[in-house]
Amino acid sequence: MSLGGQLLFAFAGLIAILSALLTVTQRSPLRAAVALLVHVVSLAGLYLTLHAHLLAAIQLLVYAGAVVVLFVFVIMLIGPGALDVKPDQRGLMVKLLGGATIVMVAGAIAAQVGHAVGIFPGLPGCPEGDTTTLAGECGQFGGVDALSNAIYVGAAIPFELVSVLLLVAIVGAIAVARGHTDAEKKAKDPVELDPRPRSADPNSPDPSGITPAE
Amino acid sequence: MVTGLGTYLTLSAVLFGIGAAGFLARRNLLLQLMSIEIMLNSVNLALVAINRAHPTSHAGQVFAFFVIAVAAAEASVGLAILISVFRLKKSVESDRADLLKG
């Protein structure tokens, strides 16, 4: 990787870790959402160092453009209730234990894979040792042509299934988040409205007083 | 420092750990959903880095693409559930979503 790529990796990686820490520690959800936005943008920078240009663009469009905005909209809808009402009641010991466990697991993974694998191989068409330029054939890996070929030809059916998934998610989100209208609130459950006591004998006279027409 | 696959996987593991800790430690449903997003993003970073180490195919980037799509669907449904819980409980604390508790 070129020096520019290494500098971008160091910068974006540092920003990614700091903004992730800010996201999970901020008390105000709006500040956490802004930190999440910074995190997403820094991850797009990391994708650029990995020669995944189209994915970096998709990351910016979907996460920064849609998901974070959705979070901000929900925070706006909820208003001041989005704040933590009461502080966490668990003891410091439990928190420290949980944090230490997660740090140990992540550290174990990092120690295992950190030095086991070497540097990245060169890409076809790219100049030796410099894979950050996009001229000519070097822009193929991770570019629009190659990645869309892999998606639309190699994974066409999963791609179509994803569109069904998104449709179901839209319908489900509307069905779950939609409140009841006034008319629906007044129209109670028909089973509760039925004044007749339940009787086992279907031939017993109707206690509601309505006699069927002879 | 030479950046290679190991550095990226290390960064990904650290980010996943931060997201997992946030998900377990926070009691605000909004923050928990954001922590889930951080975890999904860290997995995406690992997938793209592994794809970069084996540049003959685009399998890792295609996987990351699908993970992004699923994460978007998850965020929309999760936030819809959050709004529904808030309407019932007037709170976004996950401890108070206990309707199914016996």
Structure summarized in a few sentences:
The complex is a heterodimer of chains A (214) and B (102). Chain A is mainly α and 214 residues long.
Helix fraction of chain A by DSSP (H/I, runs of at least 4) = 55-70%
Relative strand content of chain A: under 5%
Give the H and E element order of chain B: HHH
Alpha-beta classification of chain A: mainly alpha
The name of the CATH architecture of chain B is Orthogonal Bundle
Structural class of chain B: mainly alpha
Overall helicity of chain B: over 70%
Mean pLDDT over the residues of chain A: 81
Number of beta-strand segments of chain A = 0
Give the C-level CATH assignment of chain B. Answer: Mainly Alpha
| Radius of gyration computed on alpha carbons of chain B | 17 Å
CA-CA gap between termini of chain A: 92 Å
Shape of chain B: elongated
Beta-strand residue percentage of chain B: under 5%
What's the CATH topology name of chain B?
A: Helix Hairpins
For the sheet with most strands of chain A, the description reads: none
Can you write the helix and strand succession of chain A as a string? HHHHHHHH
Mind explaining what this structure looks like?
- The complex is a heterodimer of chains A (214) and B (102).
- Chain A has 214 residues and is an all-alpha fold.
- Chain A has helices spanning 3-25, 29-49, 53-78, 92-114, 144-154, 156-177, 182-186, 190-193.
- Chain B has a single domain, classed as Helix Hairpins, CATH 1.10.287.3510.
- In chain B, helix 1 packs antiparallel against helix 2 and helix 2 (29-53) packs antiparallel against helix 3 (59-89).
- At the A-B interface, helix 1, helix 2, helix 3, helix 4 and helix 5 of A face helix 1, helix 2 and helix 3 of B.
